[in-house]
Design goal:
By secondary structure, the chain is an alpha+beta fold. It is about 25% helix and about 25% strand. The protein folds into two domains: about 110 residues, Rieske [2Fe-2S] iron-sulphur domain (Rieske Iron-sulfur Protein, 3-layer Sandwich); about 200 residues, Naphthalene 1,2-dioxygenase Alpha Subunit, Chain A, domain 1 (Alpha-Beta Complex), CATH 3.90.380.10. The protein is globular.
Length: about 375
């Protein structure tokens, strides 16, 4: 790994293991193209990345295509009822095989019509009968590791990856404590955003509620951020941000359902936030994808009991989209992105160690430590 590309500079202060004495990562980590390229290989090619809900591929032949950073992947259910993931590339000349989502009997390349079975094996290749030593078994689609977790599907481009469930068993327990029937939910709808901000800025914004009382006034009324109610903590590759509901009639949205009587929020490394809101049973996730060093793509997927959006959930989604995202979080993150390019800023400190744990930035430090470790950098070097 070319660590020298993002080596320490003279003005840099140390990032340390202990958040109470650590400085934040230098500003260039949020806009430098060399950092961006290293993150691609060291983080996104080696981590479990959410792709879709399992209800998107319920029947044989149903498929979804997804990008894992810049790698195109097919998620498809076979005739044997097994869900597989493949690199979305024909083994003949490299053409993309499928686009979007849909249902198919076979996977047919639109370039030369090489045809694959749903299990990835090559079924037919036109005009190859006279080719010496042509062996169809050598041209099976390249499979990608896939795992189901609380009804969601994750892929990992690293074939040696430790299973996600083994890395985050406590996360699964917490999610199921709010949504016991998470596996039975059905994909309902999505919202998409393209913030002009580095992906890590967006993740870090989710990792603390130090800003909530200032920037999210309606949300701070809906959810109890008082002493003892909200106690964020980090555990390996996830961080938990859970609390209780304070009211059914806040300015955020009117809570009518009784399925969920609290708020659940979790971050799962490297780029997924998971949400449960008070009211009707639902679960949602937002994946944050890097587009460039200073722009990102966010997709917020919602899952419900029957795949429909109730009147209450419609209000929840509107609040999430119009208030939390467009009016509050996205402008905040875009302002931070601009500020990190200022000649007047390089690093800050983490607000940790006070009496009010609900405003701690310890999870932000934990996230930055995961980034540092993934990039192979040294911690605590002066």
């Amino acid at each position: 790994m070319n660590v020298h590309l993002i080596e320490k500079r003279e003005q840099d202060k140390p990032f340390r293991e202990d958040a109470s004495v650590s400085y934040t990562l230098p500003a260039r980590y949020f806009y430098d193209s060399a950092v961006f390229e290293q993150e691609k290989a060291a983080i996104f090619y080696q981590s479990w990345v959410y792709v879709c809900h399992k209800s998107r591929v319920r029947n044989p032949g149903e498929y979804v295509t997804e990008l894992v950073h810049d790698q195109n992947v097919i998620i498809i259910k076979g005739q044997d009822e097994r869900v597989r993931a493949f690199h979305n590339v024909c083994q003949h000349r490299g053409h993309e095989l499928l686009r979007g989502c849909g249902k198919t009997q076979m996977i047919v390349c639109p370039y030369h019509a090489w045809t694959y079975n749903l299990d990835g094996t090559l079924r037919a290749a036109r005009e190859t009968g006279s080719i010496k030593d042509f062996d169809k078994s050598q041209f099976t689609l390249k499979e990608v590791a896939i795992e189901e977790f609380c009804g969601m599907l994750f892929v990992n481009l690293d074939g040696k990856a430790v299973p996600l469930r083994e890395q985050a068993p406590e996360l699964e327990k917490e999610i199921r404590s709010y949504v016991p029937h998470a596996d039975d939910l059905v994909y309902a709808t999505s919202q998409e955003y393209e913030p002009q901000a580095n992906w890590k800025i967006l993740v870090e914004n989710f990792q603390e509620c130090y800003h909530c009382a200032v920037a999210h006034k309606d949300f701070s009324v809906l959810v109890d951020f008082g002493d003892g109610a909200y106690n964020p903590y980090s555990n390996g590759i996830f961080t938990s941000h859970c609390s209780t509901r304070t009211t059914r009639d806040s300015a955020a949205y009117k809570v009518s359902g009784n399925d969920i009587d609290g708020y659940g929020g979790w971050f799962l490394w490297p780029n997924l936030t998971i949400w449960v809101y008070p009211g009707d049973e639902q679960l949602s996730v937002m994946r944050v994808d890097p587009l460039t060093p200073t722009t990102s793509y966010e997709r917020h997927d919602w899952f419900t009991k029957d795949g429909t959006v109730s009147e209450e959930l419609s209000g929840t989604i509107k609040f999430q989209r119009d208030t939390l995202q467009f009016a509050e979080d996205i402008p905040i993150c875009e302002s931070v992105q601009k500020g990190l390019k200022s000649m007047g800023y390089n690093q800050g400190r983490f607000v940790v160690g006070g009496d009010r744990v609900q405003v701690t930035e310890a999870p932000v430090h934990h996230f930055q430590k995961l980034v540092v470790n993934a990039l192979g950098l040294k911690i605590g070097v002066e």
